[in-house]
C-alpha cells in the first residue's frame, strides 16, 4: 500500500518516538507573535488558526480537522521563532506531536519523502491564502458568509434528511471572525436572511444547508 505524504510523516514521527501532548477544548497551543521552539503536528482533533489584526480583533484563518503540520512559515535554522498564528483547540481534546524545530528540519533535509510533504504543504497554504483573499475581496458581507458556510461542507458536512448538516457547533463570533465582519449582529441578520429564504435551518445549535445553489448564487466567481 502506498502511503500518503501525511501518513508517511505520522509513521515517521511514531518511529522516532516523538512525544505528544494533549490540549483540551478552547485552550491555546500557540499565540500569534510569541516565540516558540517546537514544531507541532496535529495528530487528532480539530483546531482553529487565527491572527490578531492591528485593531486588536482576532481574524480566523482556517480550521484543521485532520493530521497536518500546524505551521512551517519560518526559517529552518533558528532555535526559536515567532509563531505566525494563534492555534486554539475546537474539539473536546486534541493531540499534537511536539518536536524541536531544528530537529524537525534535520529530519526533513535528510528524508526525500518529507521534503515532498513540505513542498505540498507550502503549495496548499498558498492556495488557501489565495482563496481567503478572494472570499474577502470579491464578496460583500453576505457573499463572504455564504462562501464560508459553503467551505464547511468538505470539513464537517454530512447528508441528513433536510439537506447537509454542518456537524460542528459554530458561534456568530466565529463566523464574523472568518468573514472579516466586526459586528456579531450583522452575522445574525445575514443568517436570518438565509433562514427566511429557505437556504438554511438551525437545529440543535448546528447549521443545516437546505439549498446549496442559493449559497453559490451569492458567491462571486
Question: How would you describe this protein?
Answer:
The chain has helices at residues 5-15, 101-110, 112-138, 141-156, 172-179, 184-196, 212-217; strands at residues 20-24, 28-30, 35-36, 38-44, 47-52, 58-64, 68-69, 81-82, 86-89, 93-100, 157-160, 163-166, 200-203, 206-209. By secondary structure, it is of the alpha+beta class. The mean pLDDT is 88. Strands 1-10-4-7 form a four-stranded antiparallel β-sheet. Strands 2-9-5-6 form a four-stranded antiparallel β-sheet. It is elongated and about 55 Å long.
Question: Descriptors for this entry?
Answer:
221 residues; four-stranded antiparallel sheet
Derived from helix and strand composition plus strand pairing, the structural class reads alpha+beta
The termini sit apart by 39 Å
N-to-C series of helices and strands: HEEEEEEEEEEHHHEEHHEEH
Instruction: Please describe the biggest sheet, giving its number of strands, its sense, and whether it closes into a barrel.
Output: 4 strands, antiparallel
The number of strands is 14
Rg on CA atoms, Å: 19 Å
Helix segment tally: 7
Instruction: Please report which band the strand proportion falls in: under 5%, 5-15%, 15-25%, 25-35%, 35-45% or over 45%.
Output: 25-35%
Indicate the overall shape: elongated
Strand order of the largest sheet: 1-10-4-7
Query: In terms of per-residue confidence, which ranges show pLDDT below 50 for 5 or more consecutive residues?
Result: none
Mean pLDDT, to the nearest integer, reads: 88
Give the proportion of residues in helices: 40-55%
Amino acid at each position: 500500500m502506498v502511503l500518503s505524504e501525511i501518513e508517511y510523516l505520522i509513521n515517521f514521527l511514531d518511529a522516532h518516538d516523538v512525544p505528544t501532548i494533549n490540549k483540551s477544548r478552547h485552550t491555546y497551543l500557540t499565540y500569534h507573535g510569541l516565540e516558540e521552539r517546537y514544531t507541532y503536528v496535529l495528530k487528532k482533533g480539530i483546531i482553529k488558526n487565527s491572527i490578531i489584526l492591528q485593531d486588536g480583533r482576532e481574524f480566523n484563518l482556517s480550521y484543521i480537522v485532520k493530521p497536518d503540520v500546524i505551521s512551517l512559515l519560518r526559517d529552518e535554522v533558528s532555535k526559536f521563532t515567532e509563531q505566525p498564528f494563534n492555534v486554539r483547540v475546537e474539539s473536546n481534546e486534541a493531540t499534537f506531536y511536539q518536536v524541536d524545530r531544528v530537529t524537525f528540519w534535520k529530519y526533513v533535509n535528510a528524508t526525500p519523502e518529507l521534503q515532498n510533504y513540505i513542498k505540498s504543504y507550502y503549495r496548499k497554504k498558498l492556495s488557501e491564502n489565495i482563496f481567503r483573499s478572494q472570499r474577502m475581496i470579491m464578496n460583500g458581507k453576505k457573499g463572504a458568509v455564504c462562501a464560508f458556510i459553503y467551505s464547511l461542507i468538505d470539513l464537517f458536512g454530512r447528508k441528513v434528511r433536510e439537506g447537509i448538516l454542518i456537524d460542528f457547533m459554530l458561534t456568530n463570533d466565529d463566523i464574523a471572525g472568518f468573514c472579516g465582519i466586526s459586528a456579531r449582529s450583522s452575522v445574525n441578520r445575514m443568517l436570518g436572511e438565509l433562514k427566511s429564504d429557505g437556504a438554511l435551518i438551525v437545529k440543535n445549535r448546528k447549521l443545516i444547508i437546505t439549498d446549496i445553489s442559493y449559497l453559490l448564487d451569492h458567491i462571486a466567481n
